[in-house]
Write a structure and sequence with these properties.
about 120 residues; alpha/beta; Rossmann fold; 5-stranded parallel β-sheet; about 45% helix
């Protein structure tokens, strides 16, 4: 079962995303901060994580670098209310990260996660 780490400071959104992922067959962990996410990615459960979903405002570039240091196989899905083009212009999107505009529907979330791990779930 693919694993996803949800990183968002908004507890309601974090729990909702985690619940949606679990309802679609994903193993979902969550973290409330960049520091907590890095701790999870450096722990023994890191081998179970395929995707990290992180809110853009939570030091996303730093988290992406730390996650890559733990495992180059973990994919990053950045979420933000800020339009993608503005984030690229400000160089706030980590290299290689996918993007999902907030607000999003559950179907969009699942499609975005599956697109990142498709080779692993076939």
């Amino acid at each position: 079962m693919p694993g996803v780490l949800v990183v968002d400071s908004d507890v309601v959104l974090r729990n909702t995303v985690r619940d949606i992922l679990q309802a679609h067959g994903f193993e979902a962990l969550d973290a409330a901060s960049a520091e907590e996410a890095i701790t999870v990615c450096q722990s023994p459960v890191a081998g179970q994580i395929d995707v990290v979903i992180i809110e853009e405002s939570l030091k996303c570039k730093y988290v992406a670098e730390q996650v890559a240091a733990c495992s180059a196989n973990i994919k990053i899905l950045l979420t933000s209310q800020t339009p993608q083009h503005a984030l690229y212009a400000d160089e706030r999107i980590p290299a290689g990260a996918a993007f999902l505009q907030k607000p999003f529907f559950p179907e969009q979330l699942i499609a975005a996660v599956k697109s990142l791990i498709q080779p692993r779930i076939q």
